Structures are given as structure tokens and as C-alpha cells.
Amino acid sequence: MVAVRPGDVEATLSRLDPLRPVLLLFGPDSGLVRERARAYLARAAEGSDDPFGLVRLDGDEISGDPGRLIDEAGTVALFGGRRVVSLRVGARNVMPAVEALLAAPPAQAIIVIEAGDLKRGVGLRALCESSPHALAIACYADTERDIARLIDTMTAEAGIAIDRDARAELADLLGGDRMASRGEIAKLLLYAAGEPRITGAHVRAIVGDASGLALDEIADATFAGQPAEMAVAFAKATGEGMRADIVLSAVCRTAQTLHQMRLGVEAGGSVERAVEGARPAIHFRRKPLIEKALRNWSVARLETALFALDDALLAARRNATLGPAIAERALLQVAGQARRGG
């Protein structure tokens, strides 16, 4: 097996292995997949003066022409040196193309394959993990240690110190997606440029919760019957690298909370009392939308919506490529039901 253990990932990616020219990056954190692919491709292309040395291929196109991958990888670079190929897997099957490549890997090439979440023991993941010519690296949501390392790395590169309390506060605000976290830290560094150090005030002024705030906005707009607002928030979240299944999971949790609150309303309580008595407390900015949702939805209709969202969540996890489309369609349907009421 050539699956790289989590503790060995950084060391593995820091150097090129000529005996294993194919690198498969996969997992639920698409932002981390993209970041690692970009860094590895840049390392592979170092020292080359060939403007055509890096070739980017689309998996859906390769599926219809399996021989193209090995042809591109085997093409001699115009000015000599290494051939670098980037392949991003889409919805179609690229197994025949990768099998042919691994059966006879070119001597002077590095091939980086980006994929979504792949199940252990089957398909492309099993093929690369069992090949002596490939490395397979899973990219999962950042842990607390990963986030802390990212903060330290980016602040050091920017040449600005960060207070210990500010660092802890920033880490709490960042989500599990690498690209979204990197974007939030970059905004903070730009905001604090010229300051002697980053403080908690800087963090609170510029950094939003990259996971929680965006998810609340999507869920609240969905159940309040605001499809346009939901679509804008959803596009922003997914554009920053947030996974579709994470969005749906958060919306399902909001549905469960609304269900419990609505039970109290239908038992004779008031909407206002249900909102004020919620634990954890609901932020004042969310209260108008939550109250609107409680008036629009009955217990029975919330149960139906929750079942539909659960089905969409499962479908999004099974097909990460189509996940955003699956999630957006389900959310628009629920938002439409909220507008109709009844």
C-alpha cells in the first residue's frame, strides 16, 4: 500500500519521488486538495523555462479519450526537463486512463490527480494506493493543530506577530475548510498591515466565522422562505470552498431545532417565547427570520422537509462532484415551500 499516513503528508509533499510520479489527492476538503495540488505542481515545475511544461486536463474529457493522459505525460518537454500534468477528476470515469498510465509511467513526468471524497478499497483510490508508481493522500477537514499551524505560517510569512489571545480567538472562528480559513487569515493580514502586531480587536473587526455565520445565513434564509437570499449565501459559501454536505448538515440541524421549538408553539406556547427560551440563545440578528420560520412551518411540514434534506445530504456525500447542485436544488425547494406556507 502506498497510502500516505496523516503524519507523513507534509514531509511527502515537500519532495518529489521519481519512483512514484503519480500523486492522487482526494477527500472531502476540496480547498485542501486544491492547495496541496497547486503547491506540488509548482514544486514539480521549478527550474523549467518551458511555458508549455504544465498541462491541465479535465477528467470528463479524458474519460472519452483514455490514451490522451499517457500521451500528454509522455510528451517530451519543449526545452527539456520534466513534464508536469494536472488532472482534475469530474463526474465521468477516468479509471482506464489512470490504469494505462500506472502500467507504464513516463520517466520524466509528474502527474497530479485531484479528486473528491473517495471510498476506501474501491475505484481510483484503490488503484493508486496499490500501485508502486503512485502516492495517495487523503485531505480531510483541518484539525485544531492544522488551523494553528496555518495561522503561524501565514503570520510569519507576512512578518507580523499575533497576540496569544488573538491567535486563540482566530482559531475558534475558522472552520474546517483550508481555503476558506486561508481567505479569512489573508483578510486579517491585509487589515492589520502596518500594525506592530495583530490583536483580538483586529480579529473581531474583520474575521467572520468562516463556518458558523455563513451556515446560519443559508439556513435562516431557507426556512424563512427567501430563496434569492439563500442562493446568494450558498454561492458565497461554496465559492469559498465550503462542502455541500456540511451546508446541508447545518441546515438539517436548524430544521431539528425549529421542529422542537414548533412543538412548543403547537402545544400552546407563543412564537416569541419559543425564540427567547431557545438554548443556546439565538443571536438578535437571527430572531426575525427564526420567528418568521416558526410561523410559516408546522411540525408535520418540518418533518417532511427534514426527510428531503436528509436524502439530499446522503446524495451529496455519495457524489461530491454533484454535491453543490444537489444541495442548492434541495434548499431552493424547501425555501419555496416556506414561501407558500400552509
Automatic annotation (TrEMBL):
What reaction does this catalyse?
DNA(n) + a 2'-deoxyribonucleoside 5'-triphosphate = DNA(n+1) + diphosphate
Report the source organism: Ancylobacter dichloromethanicus
Q: Which GO terms describe its biological process?
A: DNA-templated DNA replication
One Gene Ontology cellular component term attached to this UniProt record is:
DNA polymerase III complex
Q: Which residues cross the membrane?
A: none
Question: Which Gene3D superfamilies does the entry link to?
Answer: 1.10.8.60, 1.20.272.10, P-loop containing nucleotide triphosphate hydrolases
Q: Keywords of this protein's UniProt record, alphabetized?
A: DNA replication, DNA-directed DNA polymerase, Nucleotidyltransferase, Transferase
Instruction: Provide the protein name.
Output: DNA-directed DNA polymerase
Q: What is its EC number?
A: 2.7.7.7
InterPro entries per the UniProt record, alphabetical = DNA_pol3_clamp-load_cplx_C, DNA_polIII_delta, P-loop_NTPase
State a single Gene Ontology molecular function. DNA binding
Kindly give the NCBIfam families that the UniProt entry links to this protein: holA (TIGR01128)
